[in-house]
Specification:
Blueprint: H1 2-39, E1 43-48, E2 53-56, H2 58-64, H3 82-98, E3 102-110, E4 113-125, E5 131-140, H4 142-165, E6 167-172, H5 183-189, H6 193-196, H7 207-223, E7 227-234, E8 240-251, E9 257-266, H8 268-290, E10 294-299, E11 305-308, H9 310-316, H10 320-323, H11 334-348, E12 355-360, E13 366-378, E14 381-390, H12 392-442, H13 449-479, E15 488-490, H14 492-509, E16 513-518, E17 524-526, H15 528-544, E18 550-558, E19 561-568, H16 575-578, H17 590-596, H18 602-612, E20 616-622, E21 626-634
Parallel strand pairs: 16-18
Antiparallel strand pairs: 1-2, 1-5, 3-4, 4-5, 6-9, 7-8, 8-9, 10-11, 10-14, 12-13, 13-14, 15-17, 18-19, 19-21, 20-21
Helix pairs in contact: 4-5, 12-13, 13-18, 14-15, 15-18
Length: 645
């Protein structure tokens, strides 16, 4: 029994001794941890899950002007401005809720001054993994922040300097290696100092330019001569810009090189301008040499010819070498020089577009030319440029056309006179025929059925012949300018209704509707009799060429005009024949002419009568569906043509 008790006592003593060792080890570990916490330069704090301080290290307590044990039970509101305290607490709540670690930069107030700190915050969990608080470690980075901001400001300043001056400054050691910082180059390329050192700067050069640039630089260093080269350098955004790099060696008293100094000047815009100029010059030269017109260029002051194209050589018969020894004046016959120079002066003043003159060829032939002269700028100097077009054939063609027009006018006048005479002469027998027809009409009760049919045929053709003669005489008077119109204010609405009423008998015979769509119309200044004639011609034409359906007469006011449209569902007109409708004696189809009759002059006279009253007529038609003839007349009789009174 005693033995057992002793054994248990020994075990208890051993257990107590183990626990004491553990406590000593824990105490030692805590002391080491506390020593570490108290001596590291970072500030450390511990808060519970309600964001109430539990403890902090001495560095944090010193910042707050308290002792470490005085922080227990307090919150951020007791140490920081309200706005900053609320921010800290808001951030802490997010960390506790998410259960994560964050690494951030924050503002911090110490002795009333705003500082910047780098903070690491993490949630604290118990053995069961439940979040019970938050641990924070932070240290001041204000100076580092100032250095970084200063570096950014410096780079921005250098970038601004580059943008304003377009220059990058640089220096190298005697061997041509970059050993010192070149901020302007780094600001432009985005390279770090380490990337630029030695020959690292060439990595920012365009791959196609690297070898040439290095070769020229190495040769300059070797020979101690001035360095100059053009290359493309990659900007920090990846865009390549053209630079002109120049460098000179700075020599010591013994003529050895102390260092190299130089600049890189942005010449991108200059390069673009040069390319554009080159392209423009190539285009101009291509146009100049291949133009269908002869082109001469002369000095403005001396009028000495300095250039010409191939066409100019062919025009004059001289070679270019011969031409450039000539004066501009000598291109023209002596009797044309003064007139031509005066023409050029007017052209320069904008009074005329083209100067017509002559040039004298090598074999003394005079060639008619049209000249367009202007001042052009070539390589910064003004020159007189003349574009000469040979118009000999053009003038000859114009003369032929002019003569042909005169001949056609004479033929037309002769034809008109002939028709006029014939028409007048035919009126006499026609009057006699009418008289005899009147007698026969009185005796028709004694005529047989066949004789009555013959009489009606004679009367019908007599009417057509009379209409043809009347139309020819009327057209002759219009074309001769002997036609008079009697203008007065007329009630167009009333006239349209009366013409419609007169023609209704014709439409009813064919079973056609004659519809009026006439709004309130103003009085217009026109010849009432001729307006009736126009309407009568157009409406009766629509009735004649419409077999079924309807004819609508529509009239409305549009601005300062009245528009009258005659719309039908007739046979229509094909597009290729519409333009011929107003030609004398034109018939769309001879078979239609035989079927419907007509002189082929009605529409010609109608168009003339409309235009004499300042109006116009248009036609829209679809073959097989119908046509629309629209007449536009001015309300106040404007735009009257010659012959109208």
């Amino acid at each position: 029994m005693k033995k057992n008790i002793d054994l248990k006592l020994d075990k208890c003593l051993i257990k107590l001794e183990d626990e004491k060792k553990k406590e000593d080890m824990l105490r030692s570990s805590e002391e080491k941890f506390r020593t570490l916490i108290e001596n590291i330069p970072q500030k450390i704090f511990l808060k519970d899950k309600n964001l109430v301080y539990i403890s902090c290290n001495k560095h944090y307590a010193d910042d707050l002007k308290i002792k470490p044990d005085e922080i227990k039970g307090k919150t951020d509101y007791e140490f920081y401005p309200k706005k900053l305290a609320e921010k800290y607490r808001k951030d802490d709540k997010k960390i506790i809720k998410a259960g994560k670690t964050v690494d951030i930069e924050e503002e911090y107030i110490k002795d009333g001054q705003k500082l910047f700190v780098h903070t690491i915050k993490t949630s604290v969990k118990d053995r069961k993994g439940k979040i019970i608080g938050i641990l924070g470690i932070f240290w001041e980075i204000t100076e580092q922040k100032k250095v970084a901001d200063a570096l950014k400001e410096s780079e921005a300043r250098y970038r601004s300097f580059i943008e304003v001056t377009g220059q990058l400054g640089w220096t190298t050691n005697p061997q041509g290696l970059i050993t010192e910082d070149i901020p302007t180059w780094r600001a432009f390329t985005g390279q770090s100092y380490g990337e630029v050192k030695g020959y690292g700067w060439v990595k920012a050069i365009h791959p196609d330019d690297i070898n040439r640039t290095k070769q020229i630089w190495e040769n300059a260093v070797k020979t101690k001569r001035i360095y100059e080269v053009e290359y493309r350098a990659r900007r920090h955004d990846g865009i390549y810009r053209w630079f002109l790099a120049r460098g000179i060696p700075v020599l010591k008293k013994d003529k050895s090189i102390q260092e190299w100094v130089g600049t890189c000047t942005d010449i991108t815009e200059k390069k673009k301008a040069e390319e554009a100029l080159k392209e423009s010059e190539e285009k101009f030269r291509n146009f100049f040499e291949n133009s269908n017109d002869a082109i001469f260029v002369a000095d403005v002051g001396t009028r000495q010819l300095v250039d010409c194209n191939k066409k100019a050589e062919r025009l004059l018969g001289y070679s270019r070498k011969e031409i450039i020894f000539m004066k501009a004046d000598s291109l023209h016959p002596k009797d044309k020089i003064k007139e031509t120079m005066e023409g050029f002066k007017k052209q320069m003043e904008g009074k005329i577009d083209i100067v017509e003159s002559e040039v004298l060829t090598k074999d003394k032939k005079r060639v008619l030319v049209a000249i367009n002269a202007s001042i052009v700028n070539i390589k910064g100097r003004p020159y007189l440029q003349g574009i000469f077009r040979d118009i000999t054939e053009e003038k000859r063609a114009q003369e032929i056309i002019k003569k042909e027009i005169e001949r056609m006018k004479e033929i037309d006048e002769a034809k008109t006179n002939f028709l006029n005479i014939v028409s007048h002469e035919m009126k006499t027998p026609l009057t006699a025929i009418n008289a005899h027809l009147g007698v026969m009409d009185d005796l028709k009760t004694n005529l047989s059925e066949q004789e009555l049919l013959s009489l009606e045929a004679i009367k019908r053709n007599n009417y057509l012949l009379k209409s043809l003669i009347d139309n020819i005489l009327e057209l002759s008077r219009i074309e001769a300018g002997k036609f008079e119109l009697n203008f007065s204010k007329i009630n167009l609405e009333k006239i349209i209704k009366e013409v419609k009423s007169n023609l209704e008998i014709l439409s009813e015979k064919k079973g056609l509707q004659l519809i009026l769509d006439v709004g309130k119309l103003p009085e217009i200044l026109a010849d009432e009799m001729r307006v009736r004639e126009i309407l009568n011609n157009l409406i009766s034409n629509s009735i004649k060429f419409t077999d079924k359906g309807w004819i609508k007469v529509k009239a409305e006011k549009k601005d300062n005009h009245v528009v009258i449209s005659i719309i039908d569902t007739g046979i229509g007109i094909s597009k290729d024949k519409i333009n011929n409708l107003f030609q004398k004696f034109y018939q769309i189809d001879p078979s239609i002419g035989r079927r419907f009759g007509g002189t082929g002059l009605g529409l010609v006279i109608t168009k003339q009568l409309i235009e004499l009253q300042g109006g116009k007529i248009t036609v829209a038609s679809t073959y097989g569906k119908g046509s629309t003839f629209s007449v536009t007349l001015p309300i106040n009789g404007n735009n009257l043509k010659g012959g109208a009174k």
